[in-house]
Amino acid sequence: MILYLRLISHHPSKDFYSTFFSPKPIEMNQVEIEDALVGAIREAVTSVTKETEEALREAKRSEGEEGPQVQLDAILENIEVGKDEKRPICQDTGTQTFFIEVGEEFSSLGVLKEAIDNAVKKATKEIPLRPNAIDPLSDVNSDDNTGRFVPALHWNVVEGDEATIHVMPKGGGSENMSKLEMMTPGRGLKGVKEIVLDQIADMEGKPCPPTVVGVGLGGGADLALELAKKALMRPVGKNHPEERVAELEKELKEKANELGVGPMGVGGKTTVLDVKIEYAHRHPASFPVAVLPQCWANRQSRVKISSDRGVEVIR
Amino acid sequence: MKKGKVIETPIDPEEIAEMRVGDSFYITGTIFTARDAAHEKLLELEDEKVPFDPSEYAMFHCGPAIHKEEGVWKVVSAGPTTSIRMEIFEDEFIERFGTKVIIGKGGMGERTLKALEKHGGVYCQYTGGAGALMANAIKEVEDVHFLEELGIPEAFWMFRVKEAGPFLVTMDSAGNSTHADVAAEVDKNLKKVKSDL
User: Fold this and answer.
1) How far apart are CA A16 and CA A50, in angstroms?
2) For strand A163-170 and strand B72-77, is the pairing parallel, antiparallel, or unpaired?
3) CB half-sphere exposure, B29, CA atoms < 13 A
4) Is the CB of residue B63 less than 8 Å away from at least one CB of chain A?
5) Given an 8 Å threshold on Cβ–Cβ distance, is B133 in contact with A73?
6) Among A46, A174, A186, B137, who pairs with A295 as Cys (CB 3.0-4.6 Å)?
7) Does residue B153 contact residue B35 with C-beta atoms inside 8 Å?
8) Residue B26 is inside which H or E element, if any?
9) Which of A270, A290, A269, A271 is nearest to A279 (CA)?
10) What is the CATH number of the domain that holds B189?
11) B186 touches chain A (CB under 8 A)
12) Are B79 and A88 an interchain contact pair (Cβ–Cβ within 8 Å)?
């Protein structure tokens, strides 16, 4: 209902009857979508999800040594400061990355890209975000977090008339620890486990552990990496719906935490908060394995746009 | 919440020389930021042109998120950046400027460890991503050097801080390095975990 009223206020020329009984699907207001996206980015960079926070508190309870305790105390205190003061928890507010699931019958597709671009520019000024978009040839910073192909948009068409925009501000420190291996298929699942564990050990403290580790299997080189990143959007503690994938996630999490990297690489029991796997069918000759870590802040949020509930920010 | 003592700047070299890995502490006083370009800049300057004394303050590997509010610099968030990038400059920097406290994340290598040993310094880990917490401890931006030339993230920012931290000593002047120890331990654990697959 809010949506109808807003439309009336934004289109004073439309009379009551045509607004309510127009045969055309209702167009969402672009400004409203932009504002929701700014809110979602703010939420993602100033606070962590409840699942992430719970996992960090659990890590604190399980660590015994002073070193990892100091790191986790600082992390938890930092989360409180971010929440209380609406201050970005980390100075690297990331590359603004969006996974967009748009329904076949969603009526405002035409405004989404522009709304996202505008929201990123607004968020950069208002929150503020650190300007993190640099031309790779000239080294010139665009200063507003937009530029060629950024914000990074991943589109996916789904059934229905709704749209969900997943917001992921992705930091450089963790992104730098990404890895793609075109594995010899004969190495099989044992090979996958070796590659993931080798990478988690090699990364040491650099991606700001305890991390959430995304793993993409199969597809081509590009798809494996995209799936690994997309897998990070699943809440911490929630395993893949397929049992066989969920088992692999649990095994890798358990083994990763036997490595002893610990919070921020100072040693300890919690190296990963979770391992998230997504897969695609592969070419017979190829077995891409992508490993893509996310720092402990695991920043994310969502904007959902539906005809019954309008535009809303969800976690 | 505080665990460990508060040290003040100007830095007391004796106090720092006694610190060992595993100690954690807080700082009240002045810290300055320096990333890759800042190290390079100071190292190429003649002594009389160096605008402050880097031996008196703690050095922080950090490129802050910072903006001006009504003409005054305000820190938005200021966590550490990855220190190993500075490994190629750090021993020379310590040698020439006498910096005793280096704060960053992820640890540094053999060259820096040797310089810390020789000059009685420590490297401390500040928790990666804990930028809001640090911003809260920064009470004032005292000064900024080479801002126009180096840009915001790379400039030397002089922050007046109150009980900033916690900083965990992970490399000390007795040649200890938590990072080297953890790497060896992880290597051993990895071999075992993989042999059980």
Assistant:
1) 42
2) unpaired
3) 17
4) yes
5) no
6) A174
7) yes
8) strand B24-33
9) A290
10) 3.20.130.10
11) yes
12) no
Rounded CA separation A15/B99 (Å): 72
Cα–Cα nearest to A168, from A301, A273, A53: A301
Residues of A in contact with B81 (CB under 8 A): 173
What are B187's two structure tokens?
Answer: 């290597």
Residues 6+ apart with CB under 8 A from A5: none
- State mean pLDDT over A166-184: 96
**A29-38 per-position pLDDT tens digit:** 899 999 999 9
Q: Are residues A176 and A166 in the same domain?
A: no
Indicate whether A15 belongs to any domain: yes
Residue A123 and residue A240 in one domain = no
Active site residues of B: 39
Q: Is B51 part of the contact surface with chain A (CB cutoff 8 Å)?
A: no
pLDDT at A11: 42
Per-residue pLDDT tens, chain B, 197 aa: give them.
Answer: 456 799 999 999 999 999 999 999 999 999 999 999 999 999 999 999 999 999 999 999 999 999 999 999 999 999 999 999 999 999 999 999 999 999 999 999 999 999 999 999 999 999 999 999 999 999 999 999 999 999 888 899 999 999 999 999 999 999 999 999 999 999 999 999 999 99
pLDDT tens profile A75-115 = 999 999 999 999 999 999 999 999 999 999 998 898 999 99
- CA-nearest of A154, A165, A314, A151 to A227 is A154
Place of tokens 């331990």: B185
* pLDDT tens digits, A193-211: 999 999 999 999 999 999 9
Rounded to whole angstroms, the Cα distance separating B25 from A232 reads: 34
pTM as predicted:
0.90
What's the number of domains chain B is made of? 1
What token pair was written down for B26? Answer: 């807080």
State yes or no: pLDDT of A44 exceeds 50: yes
> Residue A170 above 90 pLDDT?
yes
Residues A145 and A270 placed together within one structural domain of the fold: no
Number of domains in chain A: 2
Integer angstrom CA distances of residue A251 from A145, A189, A191, A246, B112: 38, 12, 14, 9, 38
The structure tokens 């009389």 sit at B48
CB of A297 closer than 8 Å to CB of A311? no
DSSP per-residue string spanning B80-144? PPBGGGGHHHHHHHHHHH---EEEEBS---HHHHHHHHHHT-EEEEE-TT-HHHHHHHEEEEEEE
Domain span at A160: 2-44+90-171+299-314
Task: Report the complex ipTM.
Answer: 0.90
